[in-house]
Amino acid sequence: MTRTLTFKVVVAAMAVLFNLVGTAFSQDASSANELRKSTADHSMFKVLQQEFSSGPQVTKACLTCHTEASKQVMNSIHWKWRFDHPVTGQKLGKSEVINSFCGNVASNEPRCTSCHAGYGWTDMKMGPPKSQTAVDCLICHDQTGKYTKISTAAGHVAVGEVPSKAKTITGAKAKPIDLSKSAMSVGMPKRENCGQCHFYGGGGDNVKHGDLSSALYDPSVHVDVHMSKDGANMQCSNCHVSKNHNWAGSRYHVDAKGDSGIRKPGARRDVATCESCHGNTPHKGPNPLLAIKINDHTDRVACQTCHIPGFAKGGIATKTKWDWSTAGKLKDGKPYAEEGYTQGNGKHMHTYMSKKGNFEWGEDVIPFYAWFNGQVEYTKQDDTIDPSKVVEVNKIPGSPTDPRARIWPFKRMEGRQAYDKKLNHLVMTNVFGPQSDTAFWTNFDWAKAINAGMKKAGRSYSGEFGFVDTYMYWPITHMVAPAKEALKCDSCHSDGGRLASVTGFYLPGRDKFKWLDILGILAVAVAFIGVTGHGLVRIITKGRRTAQ
Amino acid sequence: MTDIRNLDLDRPDAPVRKPKDKTRSYRIAIYKGYERFWHWSQAFLILSLLFTGFGLHGLHNLLPFGMAVTLHTGAAIVLMTLWVFTIFWWFTTGEWKQFFPKNENLWNIIKYYAWGILQGASKPYHKRLHSKQNPLQAITYVALTFFIGSTLWASGIAYLFYNMWEHYGWANQVFTVIVFLHTAAAWGMAIFVVIHVYMATTGEPWYHYIQSMITGRDDVELTDAEVAFLEERQGEPLDTSPAKH
Predict the structure, then answer these.
(1) Which of A32, A276, A318, A400 has the most CB atoms around its CB within 10 Å?
(2) Distance, CA of A279 to chain centre
(3) Model confidence at B32, in pLDDT bands (50, 70, 90)?
(4) Cα angle, residue B208 at apex, residues B203 and B210 outer, rounded to 5°
C-alpha cells in the first residue's frame, strides 16, 4: 500500500516536473511573443473603462496610478520648450528661439502649441499650463494609432463634434477620437507616437529636419537601416532612451564626439549617440589595414558623415529654401498657391503660397558638412545681426583644432526672413490668427504682423523692417544607410569632393602643395629628358664608332 | 665557378692587394641570392609605393582611394620588414662595407658617365672582390638612404601613426609639414628611379647590369693572388670574363 502510494507520488511529481519543463520550453519557442511585455493590461483597469469627454480627463485617470508621471513630464523639454544651455548659457527651446520656418511661437500659439505635449498652452509668456492634468499622456502612449491632435487647438484633440474643416497635426482630416479605447490601449511610445510631431515639424511632412519624415513609419533598409522591418526594426526610443520622462539626444547640446556613450554593461546609457551601441572602433573591413584606418577617423569624423550619404529619402522631400519676402502677393485680391515640385511619392508640393512666399524642396539631399563641437548657438531676437551678410539663425561652432569637434553633416536651410532694419535684430511675426486683424496669413500685411508679433513677445521694435538672407543648420543623424551605401574614401579624399569647403587642415587626396608638385614634375621631366638624350647620344656615337 | 658567398674576407690568409698588382677580369658570382631578392623586391615595392602614393596625392585617379591606402600601407609595411632583414644581413655578412663611401676616382667616374661613355672610353672603375660598387654608386646610395630614405621613413611612419599624436595642439600644423616632407622626398625618390633605371643600361651590352643583378654574376678584377686564393678554396679554375677575352 505504502509502496503504491510512493510510486504514485513519484509519478505525479515527475509528470508535474515534466510538464513544467515542457511548458518552459514551449514558451521559449512559441508563446513568448504572445506574452505582453508590460505587466499591466490597461483594458482591465476600471478607471479607464469610462466615457471620457476630454484629454485632461484621461490624464486624471492615468495619474490615479502613475502618481509622479505628470511631474516628470512637466520637468522635460517636451513640456517646458525651454533649454538652458549648460555650456553657452543661452536660453533656448521653442519658447525662446527664432527659426527660418514659421519663425516664432509667440503670437502664433494655438497653431504651434498643437504639438505641445499638453493641452491648452495659449500664451508663451505665461509658460506651459500649470495643471497636472494638462499633460497629454496619450500623444506618446496611445497604441490605437487613432489618437492625434487638432492642428490649431493648442494641443487639444478631436472629441465630440469636430468641425468639417478641422485637420490633425499631420495634415489629415480630423475625426472624433474614442478616448476610452485609446486610454485602454496604452504602451511604450512607438515611432507612430513620436512621428506625429517630429516628422511634421515646420508645418508638414519632413519640412524641417530633412532626416525625420513619415517615410520612417515603414522604411526600406535603404531609407533607414535601423528602423526598417528588414533591418533592425527599431523604435525611436531604442536610441532616445528615457529617464524620468527625459530623453537622450539634444539638438542644442549635441554629443558631437559620441564618447560619453561608451559604457560597460549596467552603467548609464541614456545617450542617443551611434557610439553608445557601436563603440568607436566598429569597422572590420574591407581589409584589416583599411579597417584600422577607418577606425582612426572616428575621432574627427562623425559616423553620420559617411553613413548618411543623403537625407530626405523615401520619396518625401524636405524644404531647403523658404523666402518669406515674396509672401503676400494676391491674384484678384485673393491668396493663391503654386505647386511646382512633385516629390518622389507623387505628391505635388507648394513652391509658392501667398501666405508663406517661395519654397524650394530637395530629396536625397547631399548634406552640408562642417566642424561641429555640439554646442549650438542661436541668434536670438535681441542679438544684433549684420544684414549685409547671410545671417546664421543658429551657429554650429567647431574647428579642426577643437578637440571636441568632428566633421558633421547638416541640412543647411536657406531662408529669407524679416528683420528690424534700424535695430538690426531678427523680428518675431504674428502669422497665425484666423480671426485677428494682425496675422499675416489672414491679412497679408507685414507691418501689422511684425508689430503684433513683437508686441506679444514684449520686444522693442523700430517699426521699420526689411528681409535678410539666413542660414539655419540642422544636424543630420537619422536615415542611416546600410553599410554598403556608406561613402567611399574618394567621396572626400578627392578634388572637389564632399569636404571641398571644410578647410583649415590638410586632407590627403584633396590638398596639394602646388609649387612642390610643379617642381617635382619638372625635376622628373628634366631627369627623364636628360637620360633619354644621353642614351640617344650613346646610341649614335656607338653606331659611328662601329662604322669606323 | 666561384661563389664569393663562401669567402671570408676577414680571414687572416686572405690575400692583401698591393697598389701595383696586375689584375685580370673574371666572371664570378658577385651578388648573393639574398641581395638580388632584396634588390628586386625593393624595386617592386618602391615602384608600387610611388604609383599608389601619387594616386593618394591626387596626381592620378587610376586606383580607388581606399585601395591605394591599402596597397601603400601594405607595401610600406613589407618594405620596412624587408629592411629589418636587410640590415641584419648587412651586419652579419659585413656587406655594409660595400656602401662605405670612397672618394677615390669619384671625379673620373662622373666624367666617364657624363662624357667618356659617349666616346667609347673604357670604364675608370672595375669591380673588385671587396668593392662591388663604384665610388659614385656608393655615395649615391648612402645619400639616398640618409636623405631621401630617412625622410620617407620618418615622415611615413609619423603619417601612418597620426592617431597616436593627433591630440596634441601642434598636430594640425605638424601634420602638414610631415605631408610636405613625405611628398618632397617621394619626388626625390622618383628622380632617383629614373636615373637609376637609365644607369642600369650603361653596361656592355646595354642589359649587362640588369642581367648580372638577375644572375648574380659579374666581371670582377682579380689579382693573381686572389685568383689563386679563390681557386684553392673552390678546387677548380675560375672563368675568365668573356668581355675581356
Answers:
(1) A318
(2) 22
(3) confident
(4) 105
Of B65, B162, B184, the CB nearest to A516: B184
Cβ within 8 Å, pair A296-B172:
no
Does the pLDDT at position B9 exceed 50?
A: no
Domain boundaries, chain A: 82-115+188-491, 513-548
Q: Spell out the domain ranges in chain B.
A: 23-234
pLDDT per position as a tens digit, A30-59: 444 567 778 999 999 999 999 999 999 999
DSSP 8-state class, residue A463 = S
- Among the residue ranges A438-447, A493-502, A535-544, B25-34, the one predicted with the least confidence is B25-34
Q: What is the β-pairing status of strands A318-323 and A406-420?
A: parallel
| Strand partners for A149 | A157
Cβ atoms within 10 A of the Cβ of A9, count?
A: 10
Architecture of the domain made up of B23-234? Up-down Bundle (1.20)
Q: Tell me whether B57 touches chain A (CB under 8 Å).
A: yes
For residue B161, is pLDDT > 50? yes
Distance from CA of A482 to the nearest CA of B (A): 19
Q: What does pLDDT average to over chain B?
A: 83
- Is the CB of residue B117 less than 8 Å away from at least one CB of chain A? yes
List the 492-511 stretch of A: residues with Cβ below 8 A of B.
493-495, 504-506, 508-510
Cβ of residue B167 closer than 8 Å to a chain A Cβ = yes
Q: How far apart, in Å, are the Cα atoms of A288 and each of A279, A285, A303? A: 18, 6, 19
